Amino acid sequence: MESYMVLQMIGLLSRRSSINLVLVVLAMITPLNSLASTAEEVELGRRIYMEGVLPSGEPLKAERQNTVQLEGAAAACETCHRRSGMGSLEGNIPVMPVTGRYLYATAENRPLALLDTREAKDVTLPHASYTQDTLAKAIREGVNVGGHNMSVLMPHYALKDSDIKVLSAFLDQLSSGLSPGVGEDSLHLATIITPNVDPKKSDVMVKMLHKAFEQRNATQEFHSGRMRTPLDLLPRKLRNWDLSVWELKGAPETWGAQLSGYYKEKPVFAVLSGISTTTWEPINQFCEQQKLPCLLPSIPLAPAEQSFYSVYFSKGVTLEAAVLAKKLRAQESKLPKRIIQIYSDDEVGRGAAKALKDAVQGSNISLEDRMLSSSEPKSLKVALEGVSNNDALILWGKSADLKLLNKAAGKIVPETIYVSGFLAHEDYSFSSKSWKSHLRVIYPYELGGKREKNLAMMKQWLIAWQFPLIDETFQAEVFFDALLMTELSSQMLDNLYRDYLLERAEDMLSAGSNVSTYPHLSLSRGQRFASKGAYIAKLDVDGKLVADLDWLIP
User: Fold this and answer.
1) pLDDT band at 411 (very low <50, low <70, confident <90, very high)
2) Comparing C-alpha atoms, which of 456, 410, 455, 451 is closest to residue 535?
3) What global pTM score does this model have?
4) Do 310 and 303 contact (CB within 8 A), yes or no?
5) Burial 258-280, CB ≥16 within 10 A → b, else e
């Protein structure tokens, strides 16, 4: 699977050559199950499947290998077959799709799903169409429609006929139709820009995504002699990608209505990338309400409420605060008596300061909070009043604030100065010679040669298409997003369901090649933050960041 992603990257690096897709249009499968289902039956079936609760209100019970007893949520079908019903991989054992579209398909007219991302030829095989009776036998006895015993992972459920009926009603409609934003010959995606973003960054993001989409669409044109991978040879329907740019205006409390307007005008399958320097909460809420996947925006502060439909690179400054708290707790007995944190009066600054205060609760570490009243130099000077060489200083400020630091501080050189890697944007020119040995950066990205190796492909691509390198970390995130979406859509074949996209993202982020600035990206089921740690870094004699403390995961 990693080799396939590399080939996708090669396609993005080429101006005129790209990987072919062999185009075979699949007929849509209409479930053969003629059971007339009411909304009430579907809901009762959903509770069995998702929650492990029977129509009677009793917990669902099952037995595996005649020994392991499962009950309630642990016995729910969703634990293995996933929310989408499209299955999963448990170790090396594929778990089959159980939606009506797959259960009731025939050998002559069947959809395809990729079962193991490591094996492009490992797809769903033809089988006889299930009936109510054969489905009941599979659920109760673990015997499939062909009369063969299923994997030992498949529990046996003692369900009544009425329970089977409502469960079947739910499976009948589960992932039965393509998600909004999927057209007959198109796939609509959006990216989001919040107010007060550097226009150079938003502009290059949009241009990079447009170019990546253009190249991806070009790979679907047939030209003999081009490289093909086994995954390319699997049949799928030709769909060109289309990008909408949702640019938000005004106060965050108005963003929900703006997003609704954009979405009503043109529904999209997912939100890809995006940029903000402030809150992302309204967007997170909107995506959850619409069940709209939001993949890996570039933001400094992740929403407080985790959701199923939004995936982030990390928690941003909240993660940095947790990493710093872990470091401070480990050295609690050696810390200066006074630790002062100075932060901007905005969502990001307040969020970082609160997160650090929460993370040291229960210890003997005492933090003194000082909020900047404005972005004027005078405000920083006021915040630094009384700071001595014996104090530790924590600065949750943007690069513009940091540039004023030396002038505002005068001759004061605190014992240690911590700054945010997210907010500094790789600019440490503010550090004078006297400050350099005291400066520590909470750094959530890769360092040194490994970082250069990860970014080599992105830099080649930027050069090939004459894009300026404005912000290395940010542009690497955009580049990674485009590659990830390319890989995900390839793996999904024609199963373009939003829940399935997120399930595949969980798998891909743990197994794909890393072309990001982060040293480790991974998700397990239910996780929504791919990078989970940071370095405590310092400046070497050449002014380059090196690790002072190795990667810390709070």
Assistant:
1) confident
2) 451
3) 0.89
4) yes
5) bbeebbeeebbbbbbbbbbbbbb
